[in-house]
Write a structure and sequence with these properties.
138 residues, Immunoglobulin-like, alpha+beta, four-stranded antiparallel beta sheet, 2 helices, three-stranded antiparallel beta sheet, 7 strands
């Protein structure tokens, strides 16, 4: 007979490969993305082949850019003695936290040739103005 403490030790080793399965599936279904910065802006590129503009939602809230959408693609091939069909359907969502100097009010998004490009300008730093400080006596 296996004691309870020994049996409890077997379950975590069995469970471990499945622990992050949901995250891995979500990553597999998520579109491939690149994020980079230059002197003027932060730029995000996302591969969305076959996804139409009407099926994509880009939003910004509290310093986080969210891209949501729906994939639906079909491919069908037929031959004399064979038939092949592939379908991809499903919703996707990706989020990107913006750095503190990003200007979330001026975000632009463009879809061309299956690639969504998002540009987030960097906020222009205002140089602090010099001001005279009054000296109080007494």
């Amino acid at each position: 007979m296996v004691e309870k403490s020994q049996n409890a030790g077997l379950w975590p080793t069995f469970y471990e490969p499945f622990r992050h399965l949901g995250t891995r599936v979500a990553d597999w279904l998520s579109p491939a993305s690149d994020a980079k910065a230059d002197d003027n802006a932060y730029r995000i590129s996302m591969e969305l082949p076959g996804v139409e503009e009407k099926d994509i939602d880009v939003s910004v809230h509290e310093g986080v850019v969210t891209v949501k959408g729906e994939k639906s693609a079909e491919r069908e091939e037929k031959g004399d003695t064979w038939f092949f069909s592939e379908r991809q359907y499903g919703a996707f969502s990706r989020t990107f936290r913006l750095p503190g100097d990003a200007d979330g009010e001026k975000i632009e998004a463009h879809l061309k040739d299956g690639v969504l490009n998002i540009s987030v300008p960097k906020a222009t730093a205002k140089s602090p103005e010099a001001r005279k400080i009054a000296i109080k006596t007494g």
